UniProtKB/TrEMBL annotation:
It comes from Rhizobium sullae. Keywords: Signal. It comes from the Bacteria. GO terms for biological process: proteolysis. Residues 1-23 form the signal peptide. This is Trypsin-like peptidase. The keyword Signal applies. InterPro entries: Peptidase_S1_PA, Peptidase_S1_PA_chymotrypsin, Peptidase_S1C. SUPFAM superfamilies: Trypsin-like serine proteases. GO terms for molecular function: serine-type endopeptidase activity. Pfam families: Trypsin_2.
Length: 229
């Protein structure tokens, strides 16, 4: 059976999201954000890869899903009634210890409808086994954060929330690690966009960033991938 994924659009952080009742909505959720003005949305591959249909709430169906499973990235295209304001990629290197903000819609069926902000730091400049596609972050992430942007204090993209340590690893090392989470580097996402001929459309402004909430008809929210050591 194919899965229908639905998206509810929220506008910039300074503006209120329209009131919605989620009693009859699907219970799975992830996060995505605009990377082009003409309607391309970036998220994690694991958020949308099992969806036979991707629907944008109030906008109709999204089209042309393009997925890179290796790097857990995907883009889909919506028809926007007005130009979107994409998120700007930071050009300078990520710094160890710098302050970061993770943006998303965790536990959307339980918590408030509005976008959630968590803060933390860059803990390491590589992921599990020195995987340089990732940065390690201390920002708490929950099911529903997947695909959301990790930005610096100026609102520029540093990464895309993607993964946490697996239960298997916790069992192997004998402890449950706290806030050991990972984001795919923005530079990896840029290469993916370039491979799809979308990189030249990336934003150079962070004004009125638009976030996108993904809903899919699963029995649980789409959580971050679990990485083994």
């Amino acid at each position: 059976m194919s899965v229908t994924c639905r998206v509810i659009i929220a506008v910039g952080l300074s503006m209120a999201i329209a009131s919605q009742s989620f009693a009859d909505e699907p219970t799975s959720s992830g996060t995505g954000f605009a990377v082009t003005a003409d309607g391309w949305i970036l998220t994690n591959a694991h958020v949308v890869q099992d969806c036979g249909r991707i629907e944008v709430k109030g906008k109709g169906d999204a089209a042309d899903p393009r997925i890179n499973e290796i790097n857990d990235l995907a883009v889909v295209k919506i028809t926007a009634s007005e130009p979107l304001k994409p998120l700007a990629f930071r050009k300078s290197p990520t710094r160890l210890g710098e302050d970061i903000v993770a943006v998303g819609y965790p536990l959307a069926t339980l918590l408030a409808d509005s976008v959630k902000i968590t803060t933390g730091n860059v803990n390491a400049l590589a992921g599990v086994r020195n995987d340089t596609r990732y940065i390690q972050i201390s920002t708490p992430i929950q099911p529903g954060n997947s695909g959301g942007p990790v930005v610096d204090r100026n609102g520029y993209l540093l990464g895309i929330t993607s993964a946490t340590l697996s239960k298997k690893t916790a069992d192997e090392i004998g402890i449950t690690a706290q806030n050991v989470n990972f984001a795919i580097r923005a530079s990896v996402a840029e290469l993916f966009l370039q491979s799809q001929s979308l990189v030249d459309q990336a934003a150079n402004t962070k004004d009125h960033i638009r976030w996108f909430r993904w809903y899919s008809e699963h029995s649980r929210e789409v959580g971050p991938r679990c990485l083994d050591r």
